[in-house]
Specification:
With 308 residues, the protein is of the alpha+beta class. Helices cover 46% and strands 24% of the residues. The chain folds into two domains: 3-127, PAS domain (Beta-Lactamase); 144-307, Reverse transcriptase/Diguanylate cyclase domain (Alpha-Beta Plaits, 2-Layer Sandwich). Helix 7 packs across helix 8 and helix 8 crosses helix 9. Its EC number is 2.7.7.65.
């Protein structure tokens, strides 16, 4: 064995002793001239089954195929080294996350001669990334959720109102807002205690969620015993109908409230308004106008709706 063959054997031994899977593709024939035996340990496919680029393509997850193949081909044609992550099919029918690191080899004329690279198993890393993404999503959802009632919180109310306001103004559509308050809630807490008061808040939240039936209707806790409903594409009449449904559903629930002066059950006071936002209008002024209607309902005897 001459020195060149010895060196080549050493290099091959080094390559095949790593977890990374080396490979080489002839650019003109689009065939594998080499792929490390580690590929069989990882995916179950024997090295001699990797004949052409089509074998690589067909063993890629269908959802990744178009994106990855298009990217790799364009980068290779441009002579640019690149990396690509994708799911590779195992012989058992499962998928393993792979990162392909590709180096473009040029000939003396500057044309692409071959592609050489390494495949890395990144399944564990991807699993960790996906867990982090799920955790981040859960934390984001929690940041917009009221911890006591499970419905949206004030932060989500502000974000939703801004979004729906801009949409309504752009499309010249009406937007309705309902602000409502549990009547004599302080007296309820004083009589039953705060734990039962929390149960009352949760019950009201569930009832309001039943009253707002369309997918885009928003129900949230505005603060304390006050709640809010945002109703896109709802005029004053439609908004009042939803408000009356809220009041009626709670009446049917008949939650006892011995400390209330007017009625023996828990009731609601509601302020309702609708408008088509114009360039001179602003959400804060709209909220304040509906809040004044709610205050008027409270001052006028409670358990009633004031619309404007």
């Amino acid at each position: 064995m001459n020195g060149f063959d010895a060196d080549r054997d050493v290099y091959r031994t080094l390559l095949e002793s790593t977890k990374a899977i080396p490979w080489k593709i002839d650019w003109h024939s689009m065939t594998f001239s080499y792929i490390g035996p580690q590929i069989e340990t990882l995916l179950g496919w024997s090295p001699d089954s990797w004949v052409s680029v089509n074998d690589w393509v067909e063993r890629m997850h269908p959802e990744d195929r178009e994106r990855v193949v298009g990217f790799c081909v364009s980068q290779s044609q441009a002579g640019t080294d690149h990396e690509a992550d994708y799911r590779a099919l195992t012989r058992d029918g499962d998928y393993v996350w792979i990162r392909d690191v590709v180096h473009v080899v040029r000939n003396e004329e500057g044309g692409v001669e071959s592609l050489v690279g390494f495949m890395f198993d990144i399944s564990e890393r991807k699993h960790t990334e996906q867990q982090l993404i799920r955790l981040q999503k859960e934390l984001e959802e929690l940041s917009y959720k009221d911890g006591l009632t499970g419905i949206a919180n004030r932060r989500m109310f502000d974000a939703t109102l801004e979004q729906e306001w801009n949409d309504a103004r752009r499309r010249c559509q009406p937007l309705a807002l309902i602000l409502l308050d549990i009547d004599n809630f302080k007296e309820y807490n004083d009589h039953f205690g705060h734990l039962q008061g929390d149960d009352c808040l949760r019950t009201v939240a569930r009832i309001l969620s039943r009253a707002a039936t369309r997918p885009r209707d928003f129900v949230g806790r505005f603060g304390g015993e006050e709640f809010a409903l945002i109703l896109p594409e709802s005029d004053a009449r439609a908004a009042r109908t939803v408000a009356e449904r809220c009041r009626q559903l709670l009446t049917e629930q008949a939650l006892p409230h011995p400390a209330a002066l007017a009625t023996p059950t828990v009731t609601l006071s509601l302020g309702v308004s609708s408008l088509v936002p114009g360039e001179q209008d602003c959400p804060l002024a709209f909220i304040e106008s509906v809040d004044r209607l709610l205050y008027r309902a409270k001052q006028s005897g409670r358990n009633r709706i004031e619309a404007g």
